User: Fold these one by one.
Assistant:
Number 1:
Amino acid sequence: MAIYLTELDDTLTFPSPYEALYEPNGLLAFGGDLNPSRILAGYQQGIFPWYGPGEPILWWSPSPRAVFDPITFKPSKSLIKFQRKHQYKVTLNNATKQVIQLCSSTRPAEETWLNESMQASYIELAKRGYCHSVEVWHDNELVGGLYGISVGQLFCGESMFSLKDNASKVALWYLCKHLASNYGQLIDCQVMNPHLESLGAYEMKRDDFIQKLLSLRNKKTDLGTFRPQTLQDSVS
């Protein structure tokens, strides 16, 4: 069966995510630009950009989708024990630009898709109140974190980094804690991998994910808008 990809034009419109049905990895379209408004429009339809060096901008809507339920998420006993001992400090939206940059710079150059243009777009989305970060600190040093896009009560996780043991796991844990307390219903992690699965991610069919997205994208949650917020530092 021939597969035809849509080439995006100057408008911010996307093809239906269901058009990715016959492409095994969910590749849907190519081209366009990284205008923050275009990226946001994509997320609101379950579509995200990802491409490597020398490639055009590629847009994806994979099936199945890797997700976390923040309400039922449970950290491992070893992680709880670790945090009780080390007491990493966790903040929300306190260093979003640095988190995005570190998500890129801590990976080998040949492995990262988060180039300077992508970084600039997500930093602009943070200024507009759509991109959010969780930061993990040890002795006032940023040692881990994650960032993603809020679409109503859905959080679309983009990337994470860790410079010390368990720092990114702590970031995910506290993101789930915060979402569960502020009407967040689902975390999208895009594509499953062994690390996500080990943390408790599960897979959702594209149809189910899109229906969930449509039900959540216009509902309100509170993730802050570049407003520093210190989350609970200790484990109760």
Number 2:
Amino acid sequence: MGRLSRVELQERNRAKVLTAARNEFAERGFRDAKVDGIAERAGLTRGAVYSNFPGKRALYFAVLAELAERAPEPPHPEPGRTAREALGALARAWVARLPLADTDEQHGAARLGMHLLPEILAEERIRRPFAQLMKLNAILLGLALERLGPPGAPQGRLVRVAEAALTTLHGANQMAAAAPGFIEPFNVVSACEQLAGLDLNDGWWPPTPWIPAARPADEPWSPPAAVDAVRGEPARLASDGVVAILGLHRLEAAEEAVRAAPYGAHVTAVLVTGDPAELAPLARLAVAELCNCLRRAFPPSALPRLQVVFDESGALAAAAGVPAVSDGTEAAVRTVANRIVARADGRGACHAAASAGLSAPTGQAPPSTRHLG
């Protein structure tokens, strides 16, 4: 067997550190886990651990993200065909992974995440991106619910219903960890089903008129390959559409791109951050927790018209002409026939690029039949 390259050695060591950290966190809990203990389990030095992860919390987020992304999916139940059925199926998939009684495995994967919320609450630097990640998840769920409306019926916004459902499910998370045996899964599922019928006076309005106009462009569009975290498959980036480069403080702007984009256009939210070592795995974790359940609860045709791509290296952002990114980044481009034909930067960029006065993709439906999502 030949010698490993430097990149291969780094990947192997990183995998060893993640495995060791998962075992350390499972046995000792996050607070009592030690970096020295992780290094010893991995057969590496303390310095080797820190060369891959800047600290214990970043390692914790990475372990949870990997577990969420690689969680085996059980046989899919029949997906929901109405908003009520889909919310019920989503809730069943969600609570099925929770430790619900004292007899549950105390140190299993379900228990590993019990210190996640305290770590999020510990710093504003973590809380603010997490709040935006929850908004993004509500947008994804709301868009999916909207697509289950009766054909031809006026389509209302259901993002507030999605917010209420996610509040219920995340509350179930915390109670399952803090008070084993308290949660009754049937009641959680039933409560989520009832939310589908609530009128929360929801609506969406375009941003204020001061947003900058999109600038015409004529540049090549040749994005690197990426995975759509919503569907768990290669992202369709070469198709005509809108690509939004969003820092973790601006994720709610993804909805502006979806609402303003022409019917049939692909919309992609490319998530970037100024702290990829710690915040990128938190983003992957939050989105994976929802989308694992989303794919089981909704038919493929109802998945939201929004792709989510993680761009930890910044390569996709650079391909879109955004070489420097931060958590406050908001930039967007319109793409047609593998060309960037319009771009916008700053607050309101998603709406500006998506609504630029360009020819719509072939097959655009008339406005009267367009879905909101």
